[in-house]
Design goal:
This protein is of the alpha+beta class and 152 residues long. The chain has two domains: 2-36; 43-151, Sandwich (Immunoglobulin-like). 23% of the residues lie in helices and 41% in strands. It has three helices and ten strands, in the order ααββαββββββββ. A hairpin with a 2-residue loop joins strand 5 (84-91) and strand 6. It is elongated and about 95 Å long. It starts with a helix and ends with a strand.
Length: 152
Amino acid sequence: MNKKRQNKRGISPVIATVMLVVIAIILFLLVYLWITSFQKEAVLKFNSPIETACLRVSFNAMITGTDINKNIQITNMADLPIHRFELYDVTSSGTKRITTSENPVDISPAGSTTFSQIDCTKIKIVPYLLGKTKEGKEKEYACEKQAKTFNC
């Protein structure tokens, strides 16, 4: 019986150390990838974060028409172009998207766009800016803090 135990050997200390280092590196990489997945991709406008440009966004909306078919004219009051708008119907049960600018219009300062045949009671208008990522790709950004809500 004693002979069988004497023939068994554990792994060498060098191999154990190498295995511990490899496991530690793998754990570090997994934690790093997990943490970086929480970061948003930086979008720039005028070489600064697009959030800064969103602070300059300003627009007015004028609602005209009958109860069922309303027209909403949105005028850009900011000093930068607004890429597009999304309109949401706000009800007690939640918010539902009504329409989006089908073809982004890049509304210049003092320019306007009109949405026709909108049926709503209360509407939320969200402006979007167009920025660039660090890789140079164009990306839309919703300026949620500059969104406005109107009664129809």
